[in-house]
Amino acid sequence: MSGVRVGVLALQGDVKEHLRMLADSGAAPSTVRRPSELAAVDALIVPGGESTTIDKLSRAFDLRDPIRDRIADGMPAFGTCAGMIMLADRIEGGIEGQQTFGGLDVTVRRNAFGRQVDSFETDLRVEGLDAPMHTVFIRAPWVERCGPDVEVLASVDRGEAGMHPVVVRQGVLLAASFHPEVGHDDRLHRMFVDLVRTAR
């Protein structure tokens, strides 16, 4: 089967790294900065960065409503770090007026693991992967609450703060708290590309 067309929202974040992972996963990747480019893809990755900035830039580039509409119409999407926040229906710790693309029936807490100095790496077991994945958390969110249709694929134990989901899936939507584009493990991207192929 020919590669599915997966766009990477190219307003902020590790765009080149996601494009490389997608190409390695057998997709046909492209950048998305305009509504016409969004209309040309089968699916979208929303990368990390700063969720409030992504929110503002998506409106400035006239992308916010088209992305919301495509997700509501069933377009597969994969959000990483700030991208997880952008796919969430609800945010805790957001700034006044902050909006998301929505679609995932979750409540996400911004900067849940702390500031930049609290960034960390860990080997994480993700349901559907055959071995632990080395993961990098940078000012990462976590999921506070999930709706009934949300599958939790991985969680992190934060001691007194308890276990919190960091990889979730709901239908054709996938989200991870960490940066799977960092390094050379493309298994989560391959999982998403397979999901897109199945949806198509």
Describe what this molecule looks like in 3D:
The protein is α/β, with parallel strands linked by helices. The protein has a single domain (5-199), classed as Rossmann fold. It has six helices and twelve strands. It has helices at residues 15-24, 35-39, 51-60, 64-72, 82-87, 187-199; strands at residues 5-9, 28-32, 43-46, 77-80, 88-92, 104-109, 120-124, 133-137, 142-146, 151-157, 163-170, 173-176. A seven-stranded mixed β-sheet has the order 2-1-3-4-12-11-10. A three-stranded mixed β-sheet has the order 5-6-9. A hairpin with an 8-residue loop joins β7 and β8. The radius of gyration is 15 Å and the shape is globular. GO terms for molecular function: glutaminase activity; pyridoxal 5'-phosphate synthase (glutamine hydrolysing) activity. This is Pyridoxal 5'-phosphate synthase subunit PdxT. Its EC number is 4.3.3.6, 3.5.1.2. It comes from Mumia zhuanghuii. Belongs to the glutaminase PdxT/SNO family.
The computed structural class is alpha/beta
Task: Count helical runs.
Answer: 6
Distance between the termini: 11 Å
Extended strand count? 12
Order of helices and strands: EHEHEHHEHEEEEEEEEH
Task: Give the mean pLDDT.
Answer: 92
- CATH architecture assignment name: 3-Layer(aba) Sandwich
Radius of gyration: 15 Å
Major sheet details: 7 strands, mixed
Fraction of helical residues: 25-40%
Whole-number count of domains: 1
Give the class-level CATH name. Answer: Alpha Beta
Under CATH, the topology is which?
Rossmann fold
Strand content: 25-35%
Protein name: Pyridoxal 5'-phosphate synthase subunit PdxT
Subunit structure: In the presence of PdxS, forms a dodecamer of heterodimers. Only shows activity in the heterodimer.
Catalytic activity: L-glutamine + H2O = L-glutamate + NH4(+); aldehydo-D-ribose 5-phosphate + D-glyceraldehyde 3-phosphate + L-glutamine = pyridoxal 5'-phosphate + L-glutamate + phosphate + 3 H2O + H(+)
InterPro entries: Class_I_gatase-like (IPR029062), PdxT/SNO (IPR002161), PdxT/SNO_CS (IPR021196)
